[in-house]
Amino acid sequence: MKLKETLLFTQHDSIDYNYDEIGDEHVSSSLETPIREDAFEISDNKKKEIIADHFKGIMETLGLDLNDDSLMGTPHRVAKMYVDEIFNGLNPKNKPKIALFENKYQYNEMLVEKNITFYSNCEHHFVPIIGKAHVSYISSGKVIGLSKINRIVEYFAKRPQVQERLTNQIGNELKEILETEDVAVIIDAKHLCVSSRGIKDDTSTTTTSYYSGKFKNKSTKKELHHYLSS
Ligand SMILES: [Zn+2]
Fold it and tell me: Which of 8, 42, 59, 61 is the most exposed place for a label (fewest CB within 10 A)?
């Protein structure tokens, strides 16, 4: 079934597992975001139109009166927010363009950028994941502007996500861009689907990590952890 058809007609596939269970266990199915081949065959504007229509349906089903001044514009606002903001990392055209520089200072030690705040959304509940990413790499001769690391984190965060995949996607991307194996990513995040609903645990956070190349060595890892805790 083509994307347009799926979007316009709700399809009920047979379900042979428990959605609730899968959702709360936060199982990640693959490293790649499960995206359809025809994901970008329709324009952003058309997507907004279709999403607004569907969201209107959700609100109406909940019993809300869309004639109310305050609610009237919500379907359109949500659609615009999904496509232009919180899920715009789905579209490869929004991937940040990264320029590499020669490592002129011959700085061959570990570089750590910590506490990069990001906002993502859990792909199982579509509620926020709010966290901090700590990123580190050892230059192989190339460096990138520090703000570009923030942009890469932001790009992958702006997708429906699971934290494990977000961590790996950032790590893999940095490896590719920086042309080095020596990359580490640590993410500490709060999942609103855990704190604001379900088990309602407001104090727990989840930590995930990605260590590649030299960061697999105990001493390198220890050095990184030292910087993160200071
Ligand atoms: Zn969730």
Answer: 61
**Any idea which fold 3-94 has?**
GTP Cyclohydrolase I; Chain A, domain 1 (1.10.286)
Active-site residue, 122 included? yes
Q: With 0-12 CB in 10 A as exposed, 13-18 as middle and 19+ as buried, what is 65?
A: exposed
**Spans of the chain, pLDDT less than 50:** 1-17
34-67, pLDDT tens digit by residue?
Answer: 999 999 999 999 999 999 999 999 999 999 999 9
State the CB neighbour count (10 A cutoff) for residue 171: 23
In angstroms, the Cα distances linking 203 to 6, 142, 199, 226 are 39, 40, 11, 24
Ranges of each domain in the chain: 3-94, 100-229
To the query of whether residue 179 is one of the catalytic residues in this protein, the response is no
pTM: 0.86
Active-site position among 134, 163, 169, 173: 163
193 is catalytic: yes
Q: Do domains 3-94 and 100-229 have the same CATH topology?
A: no
